[in-house]
Design a protein that fits this description.
single chain, mainly alpha, two-stranded antiparallel ribbon, 3% strand, flat
Length: 549
């Protein structure tokens, strides 16, 4: 059995005759997947005597603390003392879950889960135990036994949550074996046939999503949409059809062999989404929701890489909802994917927010590496949006940096340091970075020295000194980081070792690497130092300081 986390569905306020619902969630050994398998009902809990409740509480406490060995003993004590109790099958199940955590899976199966089924076949825990046997076999690689057991669970308990969980496990096996037929059969059962009870709903929804995606890849749009309709209402469908169809369409149309199939799915998806889009646009909120649905339709067509249908749908959107900057932006961005930058800029020029439209125009020039045109566009924003002039000057500097026009960028930052004193530290830092990227290490050091973002500025200065072969200066700076920044100290001490190595001082380098291992044995940088000492110097150093040459 696998340890599972107990969920107390009602707060424990006192023992007495007060009923408590105990639920437990299946934690897939790693607690990655969870779903309640059963609940001890109020009626069953009320049948427990106070001493039984007390003993069960002790066992559950150790279980929650993941003290599996102690929990095993407490569950055994309950079963020894109260073997006829209503809580006995539950304790047997939990005992088996502890055995799984203790890596005794076969013991859990034979002496735990199977005992629940043999001795308490009519208990709610018996169904859970049957499923857990199948899952346990799967997790230890006994695939044949796992499939037989899980299929038996589905057959015997077809309307219970364990059937949904069993089918989920069988899906994983089918995925591993690349058995599409088995996957489709399981997806269909979970999507169309299984009742969406509280605890099975998530498994069924996931299956509907997977089956829809698979169907879209196969070019069967109607089947994929039908699957999603089992999980989402009309208002939710435009988004979810877009979400699960977008990637299949893009991949199919990117391959000449499946291009036609992808284009067909895109057309069907767009038509479907438009059909499901809200028609009530009587309020701004409703109009926005309707327009968003149409954007999803446009996006699935965009994924098919065809300009004409995308142009047509954006024309429909503009006609139906009026001129919106978001519409111009989306269409312009699509045009850029078609390398139609001039046409895209014509769309951005239609923005009601001219500042933002001009910003998009400038950015499109940057994407084409047409820096002069980008700068000219940003300069227009400087004039039109004086309140945010510093922001646009910063974009100009970035445009220069992108193409390696370092001096031009530095000149802009120098002016910003003077004019935008509120953000002077930011501009000073970017100026230093620009000097660094330009290979102007001496100048970069001078700028970083004026920054106040320790230890980052010291890290950059030290790196510049190393590039200038000024190893002593770099070591001094790293030493100041070691003494002044607890978080960066392991990294800085490691850098001292590398710097001494670059300077040709083997003994000092080794000493520094050993210090990393000694002072910061649990830090990841100690592992790096340890490996370096072994690989380069053939020295074995125990993390914590011991040395064996």
């Amino acid at each position: 059995m696998i340890p599972m986390r107990i969920r107390f569905l009602k707060t424990l306020c006192g023992w007495g005759l007060r009923a408590l619902v105990l639920g437990f969630a299946l934690s897939a050994w790693s607690a990655a997947q969870a779903g309640p398998l059963d609940e001890m009902s109020l009626e069953r809990w009320a049948k427990l005597r106070e001493v039984e409740r007390y003993q069960l509480q002790i066992a559950e406490k150790y279980y929650r603390e993941q003290n599996w060995k102690t929990a095993v003993g407490e569950y055994e004590k309950f079963m020894t003392l109260y073997e006829q109790s209503e809580g006995a099958p539950y304790c047997q199940l939990k005992w088996a879950l502890c055995q799984v955590q203790l890596k005794k899976v076969n013991t859990a199966i034979k002496d735990g889960f199977q005992s629940v089924i043999d001795y308490w076949p009519d208990s709610p825990e018996a169904k859970s135990a049957a499923f857990l046997i199948g899952r346990s076999y799967k997790d230890i690689g006994e695939t044949k036994k796992a499939k037989a057991t899980l299929n038996d669970v589905v057959k015997k308990h077809e309307k219970h949550v364990v059937a949904a969980l069993a089918m989920s496990e069988l899906l994983e096996l089918a995925e591993t074996e690349m058995d599409d037929k088995a996957r489709v059969d399981l997806w269909k059962k979970l999507t169309f046939d299984f009742e969406r009870t509280q605890f099975a709903a998530q498994t069924c929804v996931k299956a509907s999503q997977q089956y829809a995606t698979f169907s879209f890849y196969k070019g069967e749009f109607a089947e994929g949409a039908r699957a999603l309709e089992t999980s989402y209402n009309t208002a939710q469908l435009p988004y979810h059809v877009w979400y699960f169809a977008h990637s299949p369409i893009s991949q199919m149309t990117g391959d000449e062999k499946s291009k036609a199939r992808g284009e067909k799915v895109a057309d069907q998806a767009a038509a479907y989404i438009k059909e499901k889009a809200p028609t009530d646009v009587s309020t701004p909120e409703k109009k926005k929701a309707a327009r968003e649905a149409w954007y999803y339709a446009a996006d699935v067509l965009s994924a098919s890489r065809r300009a004409e249908p995308v142009q047509q749908i954006y024309a429909q959107i503009l006609q139906q909802f009026g001129n919106e900057d978001d519409t111009f932006l989306r269409y312009g961005n699509f045009l850029k994917t078609q390398n139609k930058y001039d046409t895209a800029r014509a769309e951005y020029a239609k923005f009601q927010n001219q500042i933002e439209g001009n910003s998009q125009i400038a950015y499109s020039f940057r994407q084409e590496r047409k820096t002069d045109q980008a700068v000219a566009a940003y300069q227009r924003n400087v004039a039109a949006d004086a309140q945010n002039a510093a922001k646009w000057h910063g974009e100009i500097a970035t445009a220069y940096r992108e193409v390696g026009k370092w001096n031009e960028a530095i000149a802009v930052y120098q002016e910003l340091v003077k004019s935008d004193t509120k953000n002077g530290e930011q501009w000073m830092w970017l100026m230093g970075i620009t000097h660094r990227d330009a290979g102007q290490n001496k100048e970069a050091i001078g700028v970083f020295r004026q920054c106040n973002n320790f230890p980052s500025n010291y890290q950059e200065m030290a790196a510049c000194h190393r590039r200038l072969k000024q190893h002593g200066e770099a070591v001094v700076l790293y030493g100041q980081i070691v003494s002044g920044s607890k978080q960066a100290a392991p990294w800085a001490l490691l850098q001292i070792g590398y710097t001494q190595e670059e300077a040709g001082d083997k003994d000092k380098a080794i000493a520094a690497f050993q210090q990393v291992c000694k002072k910061f044995p649990t830090d990841g940088h100690a592992s790096q130092a340890h490996a370096h000492l072994q690989n380069k110097y053939k020295l074995n150093v125990t993390l914590g300081g011991a040395k064996d040459e």
